[in-house]
Design brief:
The chain is of the alpha/beta class. It has helices spanning 2-16, 32-36, 80-95, 107-110, 112-120, 137-153, 164-173, 183-188, 195-202, and strands spanning 40-46, 58-64, 70-75, 100-104, 124-128. Residues 28-191 form the Integrase catalytic domain.
Length: 203
């Protein structure tokens, strides 16, 4: 994992020499949510579940605390090595590298592999005790995930991975009572077009 991170950082430095800066000019104001967007993530594991059709047993849930944007990734293993690699490849390289990650003290997050990876990427870890899981925002998303999975999966327990995109879309497009906006709007400054919108426009 150290080699993977080191090589990425080296390649990134080389690419930046040829990049044009996309930094906004001074004087452009941002909202508090925009200023905090992408800086702090909450992570949690959901599972183990009945083995999916491709061998998946776990769901890694990642939530941007400022916007409430959530990602759900189906995994075959929940090891520290897999967790670190998936975080980098499937989230950080898509949305940017956070300043801080909040998680429980599961072995995936407190292992030497994860600590070394976070140190190399200059990401601080906030570890929450297992007896205070309610402090982790991702834990609340896990409860919502459990409810929606039970409704959609019913008796076809091996089919749960195929419902994750639908659940993720539902969570990210719904208005949050805390922020008054949908996670999608806070993340991208626009609402996502939903199947309901498409149906309504046709009618």
């Amino acid at each position: 994992m150290r080699k993977f991170v080191t090589e990425y950082l080296k390649n990134r430095e080389e690419c930046q020499r040829y990049e044009i800066s996309n930094q906004k000019p001074a004087g452009l104001l941002q909202t508090p949510v925009q200023n905090q967007r992408g800086k702090v993530l909450a992570t949690d594991f959901f599972g183990p579940l009945s083995e999916g059709e491709s061998g998946e047993k776990w769901i890694l849930l990642i939530e941007d605390i400022a916007t409430r944007w959530v990602e759900m990734l189906a995994l075959k293993e929940a090891t520290a090595e897999v967790t670190a690699k998936i975080l980098i490849e499937q989230y950080f390289l898509r949305y940017g590298f956070p300043r801080r990650i909040v998680s429980d003290n599961g072995i995936q997050f407190v292992s030497a592999v994860m600590q070394q990876t976070m140190h190399l990427l200059d990401i601080k870890q906030n570890i929450i005790a297992l007896y205070h899981p309610e402090v982790n925002p991702a834990e609340r998303k896990n409860r919502d995930l459990k409810t929606q999975l039970s409704i959609l999966v019913q008796n076809n327990h091996r089919a749960w991975p195929k419902y994750l995109p639908e659940i993720r879309f539902s969570m990210n497009s719904a208005k949050c009572s805390t922020t008054g906006c949908s996670p999608a709007f806070l993340m991208f400054a626009r609402e996502m077009r939903t199947p309901y919108d498409a149906l309504h426009s046709v009618i």
